[in-house]
Design goal:
Blueprint: H1 5-11, E1 18-27, E2 31-41, H2 64-78, H3 82-94, H4 96-101
Antiparallel strand pairs: 1-2
Length: 124
């Protein structure tokens, strides 16, 4: 067995990020190959070297902060009842990080964070 198999079974967990020192190659018969020389769990200090887990998750092509601002603006302009408008804005503000991370739109769900189409934010 490979030297990493035992550690993999004991220590590796789905949803974690790992830093690899490896060589990628294409084998004519077996396809993609990854020869791992070193592997470890990502540390907080890896952020100083540019690690950002958001780069590893497919996202909308639109700026999420801008989309969220647009959603707040639409709410402020189109929810006529002031107490309801204030409630919706408070809920949006309280849950902004999760809303910008969740993979959904008004009409359909996408398997990546943020919304894909700007028109999805416009009320019908």
């Amino acid at each position: 067995m490979g030297k990493h198999v035992e550690a993999c079974e004991r220590e590796w967990h789905a949803g974690r990020f790992y830093k690899l020192r490896a060589v990628y190659s294409e084998h004519e018969r077996y396809g993609s190959q990854l020869d791992i020389h070193q592997i470890r769990v990502v540390k907080e200090t890896d952020r100083e070297d540019g690690f950002d887990e958001a780069q590893l998750v497919e996202s909308s092509r639109h700026d999420l902060s801008q989309l969220f601002t647009e959603l707040r603006t639409l709410t402020a302009q189109h929810v006529a009842d002031e107490p309801l408008r204030n409630l919706v804005l408070a809920v949006l503000d309280r849950h902004a990080p999760a809303l910008m991370r969740l993979p959904a739109t008004r009409d359909r769900a996408y398997p990546y964070r943020g919304t894909e189409h700007r028109y999805d934010l416009v009320a019908s």
